[in-house]
Amino acid sequence: MKKFLFALGAMAMLISCEQKQEGFTINGTVTGFADGTMVYINSADENSDTGLTKIDSVAITEGKFTFAGKADEIDMKYLEFGQEQMYYLPFIYENGEITVVYDKDKTENTKVTGTEGNDSFMTFREQTKPVEEKIKRFEEENNEKMMQARMSGDETVMNELREEYMKIADELGEVSKNFVKNNKNFASLMMLSQLHQNKQITDEELIEIYNGMDDSLKATKVGKDIQELVNNAAKLAIGQPAPDFSAPTPEGTEESLKENLGKVTVIDFWAAWCGPCRKENPNVVRIYEKYKDQGLSIIGVSLDRDKDAWLKAIADDGLTWTQISNLAYFSDPIAKEYNINAIPATFILDADGNIAAKDLRGQELEDKIAELLAK
């Protein structure tokens, strides 16, 4: 699959709901392409192998191309230059005069400007550029080291590199979070969804920021999608009762959360393929052995697809508590109800089955369990 031009393409959806004219024109100037090379506009399509579907095309003539039409709804689209380029260029599909400057060999100098949304995108890109350059340098300097560690199975080196990378990624998240908080527009609405998916904002922050958005933003398709996240987040707030659920065990019998409630209960979302989950499992095993006789219950919800891999991970990691899975990856209905977009993820419930804490690991997880058991 071709990779997007910008590392966080979803965060590139920086747009305005206000339309300036009836239709749009996209005037592009490109370098490095022969006349006759086709330029395509792609739309997101989850049913496509690439995740995108071509909706329009024009040919490059003397280094230029032009699209014209009308955007019935503001959206995120992707420009594709020929079919051999390894990039899609995200842009804001909105009415107005849009200008594209693109050099095949200097993609970092790409500019998409002219409308309020695309101008906002460029502003955001300037804010994130220093951190993105830091990410690029890190990848260039450590790519070979990571490959060697994977080949040799050196978990220590791999974990060290992951932690270093995540520190830089968190910097990018902070820049994005500040943009969202300081710009109550469609741009921040789009990034709000991505920040929540990446667990860079809490459910409580999601609700607060979204509620501060204008009603016209909430009425958009993206706004309605986020409203669903907000509704679920409100149900999953600290102090709320954890929604009940059930799914098959490895043996094929149905087990529910209600049947597994203890004095303290941990709902642990994980998967055999999830490296950070597997890294945390020894800690969870230790905690379970230490506190199970005091009333600790754990129910593992796997987002695996492959049953054999799931069963092998349970055995290899010594997970002796209740395990269930619909083998549906992130389409699992339990994952959807609990707003799970990334794993590992945990919910810690008190004796009444109410949510007492979320997403704790390591010593923080043990401390919270000990605190609740002592009550």
From TrEMBL:
GO terms for biological process: cytochrome complex assembly. It holds the Pfam family DUF4369. It is found in: Cell envelope. Keywords: Cytochrome c-type biogenesis, Disulfide bond, Redox-active center. It comes from the Bacteria. One of its GO terms (molecular function) is oxidoreductase activity. InterPro entries: AhpC/TSA (IPR000866), DUF4369 (IPR025380), Thioredoxin-like_sf (IPR036249), Thioredoxin_CS (IPR017937), Thioredoxin_domain (IPR013766), Thioredoxin_ResA/DsbE_sf (IPR050553). Residues 236-375 form the Thioredoxin domain. One of its GO terms (cellular component) is cell envelope. Its main location: other. This is Thioredoxin domain-containing protein. The lineage of its organism: Bacteria, Pseudomonadati, Bacteroidota, Flavobacteriia, Flavobacteriales.
